[in-house]
Amino acid sequence: MKDAIASILQARFPSRELDAIIAMSVFPALAELQVLDYGIWLHGDGSRVRALHYTRSREAAATLVPAGFWIESYGRMSVVAGPAGEWSGRHEQEPVALCLAALRSRTAPGPDKSGYPGHPKET
Protein backbone atom coordinates (compact mmCIF):
# COMPACT_ATOMS: atom_id res chain seq x y z
CA MET A 1 0.00 0.00 0.00
CA LYS A 2 2.86 2.39 0.82
CA ASP A 3 4.33 1.99 -2.69
CA ALA A 4 0.96 2.80 -4.26
CA ILE A 5 0.61 5.90 -2.06
CA ALA A 6 4.13 7.00 -3.05
CA SER A 7 3.26 6.52 -6.75
CA ILE A 8 0.10 8.59 -6.38
CA LEU A 9 2.04 11.37 -4.68
CA GLN A 10 4.39 11.54 -7.68
CA ALA A 11 1.63 11.34 -10.31
CA ARG A 12 0.85 14.40 -12.37
CA PHE A 13 -1.96 12.84 -14.40
CA PRO A 14 -4.32 9.87 -14.30
CA SER A 15 -2.86 6.78 -15.98
CA ARG A 16 -3.49 3.10 -16.52
CA GLU A 17 -0.06 2.39 -15.05
CA LEU A 18 -1.13 4.06 -11.82
CA ASP A 19 -4.48 2.23 -11.92
CA ALA A 20 -2.54 -1.06 -12.09
CA ILE A 21 -0.33 -0.12 -9.14
CA ILE A 22 -3.40 0.77 -7.09
CA ALA A 23 -5.19 -2.45 -8.06
CA MET A 24 -2.19 -4.56 -7.10
CA SER A 25 -1.95 -2.85 -3.71
CA VAL A 26 -5.62 -3.57 -2.98
CA PHE A 27 -5.68 -7.03 -4.59
CA PRO A 28 -2.22 -8.57 -3.99
CA ALA A 29 -3.25 -11.84 -5.67
CA LEU A 30 -3.01 -10.01 -9.01
CA ALA A 31 0.78 -10.41 -8.73
CA GLU A 32 0.30 -14.14 -9.42
CA LEU A 33 -1.38 -13.49 -12.78
CA GLN A 34 0.28 -12.87 -16.12
CA VAL A 35 0.39 -9.17 -17.04
CA LEU A 36 -1.00 -8.43 -20.51
CA ASP A 37 -0.86 -4.64 -20.31
CA TYR A 38 -1.10 -1.91 -17.67
CA GLY A 39 -4.15 -2.82 -15.61
CA ILE A 40 -4.91 -6.02 -17.51
CA TRP A 41 -4.04 -9.51 -16.27
CA LEU A 42 -4.71 -12.99 -17.67
CA HIS A 43 -6.53 -15.30 -15.27
CA GLY A 44 -5.72 -19.00 -15.25
CA ASP A 45 -9.10 -19.82 -16.84
CA GLY A 46 -8.29 -17.60 -19.84
CA SER A 47 -10.45 -14.66 -18.79
CA ARG A 48 -9.04 -11.19 -18.36
CA VAL A 49 -8.99 -9.20 -15.17
CA ARG A 50 -9.04 -5.43 -15.56
CA ALA A 51 -8.30 -2.71 -13.04
CA LEU A 52 -10.96 -0.06 -12.77
CA HIS A 53 -10.04 3.42 -14.00
CA TYR A 54 -9.38 4.54 -10.43
CA THR A 55 -7.47 7.68 -11.39
CA ARG A 56 -9.96 8.91 -14.02
CA SER A 57 -13.29 8.07 -12.45
CA ARG A 58 -14.54 9.29 -9.09
CA GLU A 59 -16.94 6.34 -9.02
CA ALA A 60 -14.08 3.87 -9.50
CA ALA A 61 -11.94 5.65 -6.89
CA ALA A 62 -14.85 5.50 -4.43
CA THR A 63 -14.73 1.69 -4.55
CA LEU A 64 -11.38 1.92 -2.72
CA VAL A 65 -13.03 3.46 0.35
CA PRO A 66 -13.41 0.88 3.14
CA ALA A 67 -16.93 -0.19 4.14
CA GLY A 68 -18.38 2.01 6.85
CA PHE A 69 -16.23 5.02 5.89
CA TRP A 70 -17.50 8.09 4.05
CA ILE A 71 -16.20 10.60 1.51
CA GLU A 72 -16.06 14.37 1.76
CA SER A 73 -14.84 16.44 -1.19
CA TYR A 74 -13.50 19.98 -1.12
CA GLY A 75 -12.39 20.85 -4.64
CA ARG A 76 -8.90 19.39 -5.11
CA MET A 77 -8.98 17.75 -1.69
CA SER A 78 -10.82 14.57 -0.77
CA VAL A 79 -11.27 13.27 2.74
CA VAL A 80 -12.11 9.70 3.72
CA ALA A 81 -13.41 9.49 7.27
CA GLY A 82 -14.17 6.56 9.51
CA PRO A 83 -14.32 5.45 13.12
CA ALA A 84 -10.54 5.74 13.60
CA GLY A 85 -10.08 9.18 12.00
CA GLU A 86 -9.83 11.10 8.73
CA TRP A 87 -7.36 10.79 5.84
CA SER A 88 -6.98 13.35 3.10
CA GLY A 89 -5.62 13.47 -0.40
CA ARG A 90 -4.90 16.51 -2.54
CA HIS A 91 -4.39 16.50 -6.32
CA GLU A 92 -5.39 18.53 -9.37
CA GLN A 93 -7.58 15.59 -10.46
CA GLU A 94 -10.35 14.77 -7.98
CA PRO A 95 -10.28 10.99 -8.60
CA VAL A 96 -6.53 10.90 -7.90
CA ALA A 97 -7.07 12.85 -4.66
CA LEU A 98 -9.77 10.36 -3.64
CA CYS A 99 -7.48 7.40 -4.44
CA LEU A 100 -4.83 8.89 -2.18
CA ALA A 101 -7.25 9.48 0.71
CA ALA A 102 -8.82 6.03 0.30
CA LEU A 103 -5.49 4.18 0.31
CA ARG A 104 -4.33 6.17 3.32
CA SER A 105 -7.54 5.19 5.13
CA ARG A 106 -6.85 1.52 4.35
CA THR A 107 -3.64 1.74 6.37
CA ALA A 108 -5.66 2.79 9.44
CA PRO A 109 -6.30 0.51 12.40
CA GLY A 110 -9.36 -1.70 11.92
CA PRO A 111 -11.69 -3.52 14.30
CA ASP A 112 -9.17 -6.36 14.54
CA LYS A 113 -6.23 -4.02 15.28
CA SER A 114 -5.21 -2.10 18.37
CA GLY A 115 -5.91 1.61 18.18
CA TYR A 116 -9.43 1.09 16.80
CA PRO A 117 -12.20 2.56 18.99
CA GLY A 118 -13.73 -0.19 21.12
CA HIS A 119 -10.87 -2.61 20.51
CA PRO A 120 -9.58 -4.13 23.76
CA LYS A 121 -6.37 -2.45 24.81
CA GLU A 122 -3.26 -4.61 24.71
CA THR A 123 -1.75 -5.33 28.11
Care to describe what's here?
The longest helix is centred in the last third of the chain and has 13 residues, at 94-106. With 123 residues, the protein is α+β, with helices and mostly antiparallel strands. The protein has a single domain, classed as Bacillus phage protein, CATH 3.30.2120. It is globular and about 40 Å long. The strands form two sheets. A three-stranded antiparallel sheet has the order 1-2-3, with no helix packed on it. Helix 1 (2-10) packs antiparallel against helix 2. Strand 2 (40-42) and strand 3 (48-50) form a beta hairpin. The two termini are 29 Å apart. The protein has helices at 2-10, 16-26, 58-62, 94-106, and strands at residues 34-37, 40-42, 48-50, 70-74, 77-82, 85-90.
Which features characterize this protein?
single chain, 123 residues, three-stranded antiparallel sheet, 4 helices, 6 strands, disordered C terminus
Q: Count the E strands.
A: 6
Series of H and E elements: HHEEEHEEEH
Give me the CATH fold name: Bacillus phage protein
CATH class categorisation: Alpha Beta
Helix content: 25-40%
The total tally of domains equals 1
Report the end-to-end length measured between terminal Cα atoms.
Answer: 29 Å
Low-confidence parts, pLDDT < 50 over ≥5 residues?
118-123
Number of helices: 4
Shape: globular
Q: How many whole angstroms does the radius of gyration measure?
A: 15 Å
Largest sheet: 3 strands, antiparallel
Helix and strand content put the structural class at: alpha+beta
Percent strand: 15-25%
Average of the residue pLDDT scores: 90
CATH architecture: 2-Layer Sandwich
